[in-house]
Design brief:
Distance between the termini: 15 Å
Strand order of the largest sheet: 4-1-6-5
CATH superfamily of the largest domain: Nucleoside Triphosphate Pyrophosphohydrolase
Order of helices and strands: HHHEEEEHEEEH
Number of strands: 7
Length: 235
């Protein structure tokens, strides 16, 4: 899991545990507010939501007031959000990365899916918006749960990862980026990547060498599914 500023939080650490508990408490609060039918219940769940914001502040870099505003402005039933990322390759086999303006970390082009938009269309759109390059999708690489890959933050995200080939355009810096470029595995800024992206990028390079690979998905964990014999992840 990761903090809102892109830092990796070690699994099982105090910070990671706080962020995970805060997220679960927020989800329970929002679910309660969705179904509450009397003032006492509403007040109780609002207090729980305020506590989840206070817990989040212990790890998040933003002020408490900003976190509270976001939490109380969005009290819908909580479920994972869907984002799309694109691993775009050029003819030389290099992968396209952006340096994000919000935290300075390098990442694959990507972002939120929009309402009434196919995920595949969103993947192509995000590359265009963030790099000014046109790409054609060449495969679906899998689904990555951000909570298992250093993403963390205020939202539980499912990332749909697509592969693409570069069609036209020279990458340029846009309003959403600080820098952009093509990278090989050897010159890629691994230490400066956003916490959620190393696993996706590694898998994308593996897929490039073996396009027949099955799409990635996170295997169920033993403590969540006690009937399973193994507690491993595909990384």
């Amino acid at each position: 899991m990761g903090a809102n500023d892109g830092r990796v939080l070690e699994e099982g650490s105090a910070e990671e545990t706080i962020l995970r508990v805060a997220g679960k408490l927020r989800a329970l609060s929002n679910s309660g507010l969705y179904f509450a039918d009397n003032p006492y219940q509403i007040e109780t769940f609002e207090q729980m939501l305020a506590l989840s914001a206070e817990l989040t502040e212990l790890v998040d870099a933003r002020p408490l007031a900003e976190i509270q505003r976001q939490f109380f402005d969005d009290t819908r039933y909580v479920s994972p959000y869907v984002v799309v990322d694109t691993a775009a390759f050029d003819d030389a086999g290099r992968i396209l990365l952006i340096q994000r303006k919000d935290n300075g970390r390098w990442a694959l082009p990507g972002g939120w899916c929009e309402v009434n938009e196919l995920p595949a269309d969103g993947a192509v759109r995000e590359v265009w918006e963030e790099t000014a390059c046109r790409v054609a999708l060449s495969g679906f690489l899998g689904i990555f749960d951000n909570n298992y890959h250093g993403g963390g933050g205020l939202h539980h995200l499912y990332c749909l990862l697509f592969a693409a080939r570069h069609v036209e355009g020279t990458p340029i810096v846009t309003r959403e980026t600080l820098d952009v470029g093509w990278f090989t595995p050897q010159n890629l800024p691994w230490d400066a990547l956003h916490a959620a992206h190393p696993a996706r990028i590694r898998f994308a390079f593996e897929w490039q060498q073996e396009p027949s690979r099955h799409p990635f998905y996170d295997l169920p964990r033993g403590h969540l599914h006690p009937t399973w014999q193994h507690n491993t992840r595909q990384e």
